[in-house]
């Protein structure tokens, strides 16, 4: 699996040259081996792309994100052919029981709340709010039927922003930053889901009729606090998502989290978590699950 995340803006053309991505920008001509690339984020709306390049990117399972005028991913390109054992993987997925899905969702939300607590403690949120979040953790049941996740989210975000804050309020530049970071994470997870031969539209908890990546929407939850931590601690400068800030959020894929008792990049942690989900459904043992822990979060530095 590739490891480099390439961010492209203000370039003339992207093309293929001898299994390399060729980037041309004025007099600058750069070549990057396709096998090294995990994701290609294209923000330039006037950039020329060759069909041959897109085909080879697909063959190499490179995640390609085409962004809109607001710099948010608008189009995600995935290969038509996926995992070598795709039919077998899909057949297993279709047999996942509702009971096991509810238990998995419980563990996902518990880990999300634990990671949110880490963000709160690092930012020295008042003890009363932290205690309330800890109480919520103990009430999370299989399937989270009482929507503890939503109740915890209100206390969590209101601990960092003013009382009028809501996640849907676009007047807050922090929401634009959160949405951008989440979108990058979600796309990376969706790419890995497809690469593992799973049906992306069939989720654990999410069942959106218009969401082609319900499973990615489930798996992203314990990873979201990574984006939260960065946005809360280093909000966008001057109320604008600068290019440098967007690159900072993209590079969160290179940050390291604790998973399976080791520090791993977020890209690798996504894969480990997905593999552990297979083990969970095959054995029925929740201890097989390996979820990301951000207690020892190590941000990527250029």
Description:
The protein has 302 residues and is an alpha/beta fold. The protein has two domains: 4-77, CRISPR-associated endonuclease Cas1, N-terminal domain (Ribosomal Protein L15, Chain: K, domain 2), CATH 3.100.10.20; 86-298, CRISPR-associated endonuclease Cas1, C-terminal domain (Four Helix Bundle (Hemerythrin (Met), subunit A), Up-down Bundle). The chain is built from ten helices and eleven strands. A four-stranded mixed beta sheet has the order 1-5-7-8, with helices on one face. The chain has a four-stranded mixed beta sheet with strand order 4-3-2-6. A hairpin with a 3-residue loop joins β2 (13-16) and β3. α3 (98-122) packs parallel to α8 (224-233).
- Can you tell me the CATH architecture of the largest domain? Up-down Bundle
* Count of strand segments: 11
Q: Helix amount, in percent?
A: 40-55%
Total of DSSP H or I helical runs spanning 4+ residues:
10
**Spatial order of strands in the largest sheet:** 1-5-7-8
Mean pLDDT over the residues: 92
| Name of the CATH first level of the largest domain | Mainly Alpha
Low-confidence runs (pLDDT<50, min 5 residues)?
Answer: none
Name the beta content range.
15-25%
Question: Could you please say which CATH topology of the largest domain applies here?
Answer: Four Helix Bundle (Hemerythrin (Met), subunit A)
What is the H/E string?
EEEEEEHEEHHHHHHHHEEHE
Q: Main beta sheet, described?
A: 4 strands, mixed
Q: What's the Cα radius of gyration?
A: 20 Å
Which homologous superfamily in CATH is the superfamily of the largest domain?
CRISPR-associated endonuclease Cas1, C-terminal domain
- Using the alpha-carbon principal axes, give the shape: globular
Give the end-to-end Cα distance, rounded to a whole number of Å: 21 Å
Structural class: alpha/beta
Summed up, the domain count is 2
């Amino acid at each position: 699996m590739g490891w480099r995340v390439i961010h492209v803006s203000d370039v003339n053309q992207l093309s293929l040259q001898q299994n390399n991505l060729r980037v041309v920008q004025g007099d600058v001509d750069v070549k990057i081996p396709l096998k090294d690339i995990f994701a290609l984020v294209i923000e330039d709306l006037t950039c020329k792309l060759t069909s041959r390049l897109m085909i080879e990117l697909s063959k190499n399972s490179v995640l390609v994100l085409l962004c809109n005028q607001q710099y948010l991913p608008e189009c995600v390109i995935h290969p038509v052919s996926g995992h070598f054992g795709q039919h077998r993987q899909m057949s297993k997925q279709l047999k996942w029981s509702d009971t096991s899905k509810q238990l998995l969702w419980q563990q996902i939300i518990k880990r999300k709340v634990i990671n949110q607590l880490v963000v709160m403690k690092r930012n020295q949120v008042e003890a009363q709010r932290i205690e309330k979040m800890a109480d919520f953790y103990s009430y999370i049941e299989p399937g989270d039927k009482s929507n503890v996740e939503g109740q915890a989210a209100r206390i969590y975000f209101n601990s960092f922003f003013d009382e009028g804050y809501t996640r849907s309020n676009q007047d807050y530049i922090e929401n634009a930053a959160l949405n951008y970071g989440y979108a990058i994470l979600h796309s990376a997870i969706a790419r890995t889901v497809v690469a593992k031969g799973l049906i992306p539209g069939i989720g654990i908890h999410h069942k959106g009729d218009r969401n082609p990546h319900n499973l990615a929407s489930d798996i992203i939850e314990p990873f979201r606090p990574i984006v939260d931590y960065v946005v809360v601690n280093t909000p966008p400068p001057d109320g604008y998502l600068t290019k440098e800030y967007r690159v900072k959020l993209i590079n969160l894929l290179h940050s390291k989290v604790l998973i399976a008792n080791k520090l791993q990049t977020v890209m690798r942690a996504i894969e480990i978590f997905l593999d552990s989900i297979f083990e969970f459904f095959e054995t029925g043992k929740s201890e097989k699950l390996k979820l990301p822990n951000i207690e020892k979060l190590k941000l990527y530095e250029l």
